[in-house]
């Protein structure tokens, strides 16, 4: 059996003052991962050095996310914040498994797609 996992991540953050009482903070993050699983076995008793594939699975996924927050301080007792959160997930899944009766190694998994999510928020804070 072999199992491999690869991943990476990166992010940027930016803050700026729009006025003495108003601030904007934004973050962008990117990450990705790859999972690989490969299993082989000796199925030929006459040739035990020969390995036959039993299972093979590969999954790749990546995600991008953006968060942005605007804060305005009216006075020490009253602050209002609003913002946006958004993300996009992309995935791909493939897999094969041995068919012992037919002696083949057909593909049994083949899926890909993406999912997008977003929301906006606003809240007030009083002390």
Kindly describe this structure.
- With 127 residues, the chain is mainly β.
- Helix content is 0%, strand content 79%.
- A five-stranded antiparallel β-sheet has the order 1-2-3-4-5, with no helix packed on it.
- A hairpin with a 4-residue loop joins strand 1 and strand 2.
- The mean pLDDT is 92.
First CA to last CA: what distance? Answer: 59 Å
Task: Give the ordered list of helices and strands.
Answer: EEEEE
- Contiguous low-pLDDT stretches (5 residues minimum) are none
Number of DSSP E strands: 5
Shape: rod-shaped
Characterize the main sheet: 5 strands, antiparallel
By oligomeric state, this entry counts as single chain
Proportion in helices? under 10%
Could you give the order of strands across the largest sheet?
1-2-3-4-5
Mean pLDDT: 92
List the total number of helices. Answer: 0
Radius of gyration: 25 Å
- What would you call the structural class? mainly beta
Lay out the secondary structure.
Layout: E1 2-17, E2 22-41, E3 52-75, E4 78-97, E5 107-126
Antiparallel strand pairs: 1-2, 2-3, 3-4, 4-5
Give the tags.
five-stranded antiparallel sheet, 5 strands, single chain, about 130 residues
Quick description:
The protein is mainly β and 127 residues long.
């Amino acid at each position: 059996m072999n199992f491999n996992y690869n991943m990476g991540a990166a992010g940027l953050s930016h803050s700026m003052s729009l006025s003495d009482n108003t601030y904007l903070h934004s973050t962008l993050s990117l990450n990705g991962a790859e999972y690989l699983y490969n299993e082989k076995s000796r199925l030929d008793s006459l040739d035990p050095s020969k390995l036959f594939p039993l299972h093979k699975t590969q999954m790749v996924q990546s995600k991008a996310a953006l968060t942005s927050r605007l804060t305005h301080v009216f006075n020490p007792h009253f602050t209002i914040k609003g913002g946006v959160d958004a993300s996009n997930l992309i995935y791909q899944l493939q897999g094969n498994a041995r068919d012992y009766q037919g002696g083949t190694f057909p593909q049994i998994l083949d899926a890909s797609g993406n999912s997008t999510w977003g929301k906006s928020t606003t809240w007030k804070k009083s002390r």
